[in-house]
Amino acid sequence: MQTPIRGLQSFCIAAKCLSFKQAASQLCLTPSAVSHQIKQLEQQIGIVLFVRQTRAIVLTSAGKQFYHAVQPLISNLESTISDFTNNQQNTTITISLPEFFASELFVPRLSEWAETHPNINLQLETVKPGTAPSQSCDLSIVLANANPDGSIVHDLFGIRYVPACNKEIFKKWAVLGYEALKSLPLILHQSHPWSWHQWADHVNIRDFDPKQIIQFDSMFGVARAAQQGMGIALVPLPISNTWFNEQLLVKLFEDELITKDRYYLVQHENIESENELSTFAKWVHSNFAI
């Protein structure tokens, strides 16, 4: 167990190329140093590994057996050390963020971060609105109606809601105005069960009595249901702009429900990765703050 790894590594390289000189070149050593290491190895294990000739070296029978036994072990050891070293060079930042924010805003811009910061890994954990972020995360993007608790909090942008549907429903029902709300299912996120009534109060609709309310536990589900023609959805802006830009959804009415809901970036304490966290937090703020 006292056999030095350097001696085993020198032996494997010399056995492969059958040259102390070439082995020395690969190891950045002198040929005499390689020869000395292998000589020590032979003395420690009590086996002659090479027949040393004037201009060449040849593996003995025992040397060949020893090489085939040791070489895979040395190769695996080198690979493990290399993988571990590479992993340690990259800092990993864990960020928790709402599903809809991740799909609509964060992921489409993530390639920019990856290209400019290849040595900082990201681990994304998506959560549903209202779910407390994991305490193990370095950063969290949260949707809240008040300033959240945290070491450092960055305000990103506020949310407003607009009635939206697909183009077919718009063509058929837009001419009826608010009366359309009595004939079609109204779609909303379950975290805001009274948002349609709040919107109706905002636009002064009296005796608001929707035909049917359909709730989803994800905002993506809300938007997709409206896009598929299930009904009229209250969709958040500006986070849903892509749906309108690509004409997957259209505004049935221009009236918007302004809320206190805002997205915040919460930076937790992590002294070990302080510089990387600050760099990433600045990138998030510069890309998503409005």
Short summary of the structure?
This protein is of the alpha/beta class and 290 residues long.
Task: Please explain how this structure is put together.
The chain is an alpha/beta fold and 290 residues long. The chain has 10 helices and 11 strands. Strands 3, 4, 5, 6, 7, 8, 9, 10 and 11 form a 9-stranded mixed beta sheet that branches. Strands 1-2 form a two-stranded antiparallel sheet. Strand 3, helix 5 and strand 4 form a beta-alpha-beta unit. Helix 1 packs across helix 2, helix 1 packs across helix 3 and helix 1 crosses helix 4. The model has no long low-confidence stretch (mean pLDDT 87).
Per-chain topology:
Layout: H1 5-17, H2 20-27, H3 31-45, E1 50-52, E2 57-59, H4 61-89, E3 91-98, H5 99-116, E4 120-127, E5 139-144, E6 152-165, H6 167-173, E7 186-189, H7 195-202, E8 213-216, H8 219-227, E9 232-237, H9 241-245, E10 250-251, E11 257-267, H10 274-288
Parallel strand pairs: 3-4, 3-5, 7-8, 7-9
Antiparallel strand pairs: 1-2, 5-11, 6-9, 6-10, 6-11
Helix pairs in contact: 1-2, 1-3, 1-4, 2-3
List keywords for this structure.
290 residues, two-stranded antiparallel ribbon, single chain, alpha/beta, 44% helix
- How can the largest sheet be summarized? 9 strands, mixed
Shape: elongated
| DSSP strand tally | 11
Percentage of residues assigned to helices? 40-55%
Helix-strand category: alpha/beta
Please state roughly what percent of the residues sit in beta strands, choosing from under 5%, 5-15%, 15-25%, 25-35%, 35-45% or over 45%.
Answer: 15-25%
Assembly type of the chains comes to single chain
Rg, rounded, reads 33 Å
